[in-house]
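My current task is to audit a protein record that another person submitted. I need someone to confirm that the token line plausibly describes how this chain folds. Take the sequence as given and treat only the tokens as open to question. This is what I was given:
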Amino acid sequence: MKHLILGIGLVFTALVQCDAVQADVRLPAVFSEHMVLQQQQKIRVWGWAESGESVTVTLGGNTQSTKAAEGGRWQVELPPMKASKEPTSLLVKGKNSVEVKDILVGEVWLCSGQSNMEWPVAACTRAQEEIASAKYPLIRHIKVPLVQSTTPLDDFKSTWQVCSPETAGGFTACGYFMARQLHKDLDVPVGLINSSWGGTRVEPWTPPVGFQRVDALKDIYQSVIGRTPGSPSYQDRLTAHIKAIEDWTAKAKTAFQTKGPIAPNPTYPAELSPFTSNQDPTMLYNGMIHSLVGYPIKGAIWYQGESNHAEGMLYLEKKKALIHGWREIWGQGDFPFYYVQIAPYRYGTEDPTILAKFWEAQAAVQSIPHTGMVVTNDIATVNDIHPPNKQDVGYRLALLALKNDYGKKDLVASSPEFDSLEPMGDRLKVRFKNTGGGLKTRDGKAPTHFEVIGVGSNGFHSATATIEGDSVVLTSGKVKEPVAFRFAWNMLAEPNLSGGTGLPVGAVRGGKVPDFLSSLTVAKEYSLVYDLDLTKLGHDIKYDVDNSGKIGPFDRIGYLVELTTSGGEEKKLFVSMDAFTADAKKIGVPSIASQASFQQTVKSMDVFSSVEGITTGTKMETGNIEFWPDNYGMVNAAKVPGASESVYDFGDEAVLPKDGYGSMQVHNFAAGQTLFAINHWVAGQGADIGIGNAPGPAKDWTFTGNAASYSSKRLRVFVRAK
């Protein structure tokens, strides 16, 4: 009994202590010593107390009173204050008092994104020199801890730090160098709220309402809401699951009594399972942004994208969700949002144009009002995804703010942007705007990384570029009449072109690019024999166009394969060769009906492709084809040079049954490359289709079963008449 009484006493004591803690007036961590408040904006202050408790808040001679709502949260709104270097205090009184000292009023910027925003001053260029000189007590910094959460959190554990050589090394470098420039130019305090996490995507930083407002992201919104307890979709799905469990339980009880069989119990629906990763939608908004919402800020800076870089223009939609979502929940209008275009970087063997298309999407974010972008292709480290020169990044972010938000209208704050295009016969004139007094190059040499294309030019070719004021004139001996251009269109591009003030020109393209076939000289020489939508593959090949009965003698055969991935990436290849048969019925898909079967080299092969890594050229003597409806094995029966005996590649052997797996492959054996493959067509959407080598061990796409992964796929077969 003694132990029982003692236990009850301990519980009672704990409950009393909890009530006392609950009754105490409390502020969130962002309202703490050394904080900076945003000048010239109404100041929201909030915290917690006992439900119904009267709370009085005093700041800078202004006082407001309120009562804590049910649940304990209270909030007041105080009048705007002017910037001040003199510290003030915040006093909050309820049943107890809380005083926050050394508060400054100035400019407050939210700093967010992934590792290049999280990157500290201690790891930047000239770090020791920068840290030693970081004697700016009017710059303050608070770091939000790395926390993911399935539900919105109201607070976090951290403190504001005063900038000094002892503290600055841990500040966000981009934010610090921006703040330093603002402080020097405006002579006001600057506060940085650093809520960033390395390696993260944009989706976890986005609130649900952001996804809801963007039509292209409704699937993400539905996924978020479907996992939110209490939402109609969650309740409906959970109700259905509970009903299924109840039905199963009743059947299980009966089966138990009768010793009869019973099926496994219903699996918990995956669409109801909470998110678990810091990469999942809303997880970092919940854990690292929600607790800041309502704290007055001037604006936000953002450095992120590496983890989303393969998404092309979809990233624009996701940035709309982030920016509009933050602005809506903050409730202070379209606050400035400035961001950094990710730098050139070697993303392994990835198609080098994928990053260029992402840069294009990042540039398009500037269509959202009150945004601006910093270009960084002049300060990159292509083998290091974290360029250490954060000084220029912060300075360029500061320029955007100084010009757009602080009245420095004469500043040139943005990089030159593509304005218009003028075809001039054998030349192409590209005009830029916002050049800051005219274009120039950083090294005094001709501009680099320009390419042009025209009808019959066999793709893009490097161009000679000449600066004429705000324009660049492009020519190429390989393009008679250029109609379109692209600039810095490669993940490793570090071009030398800049505006008059030194701000670099970002990747861009313009003009109407001829369709792939029109850009080739062969387009005028060949006639169409077959056209096949590859979504219609099956045992019996039914062409959309079949001109094989109308074709006269021919001396060359060409194959055009066009694929579009689910992510929107277009992959195209045209390969032609001297005719390996005189029968037009045998140059299409080698089905059992066509009676086509070829394992041989081909002569004078020409290869053109939009896929990076494919060896292109003309009159190659290293081509071979493997066309048959048979099964096939790995043995290099034809003794194709360089082929393997132990993997499916460019030297395989047809085996029985005749009406088997099926292979339609063209290779460049000298380069060890599959140019294109269409295998196992009888499987329809389970067929193997690819351009270039497959990523797995079977370089000829055997057993990949990937046809359904393409949003569109097409094969055309051509011949050149004798």
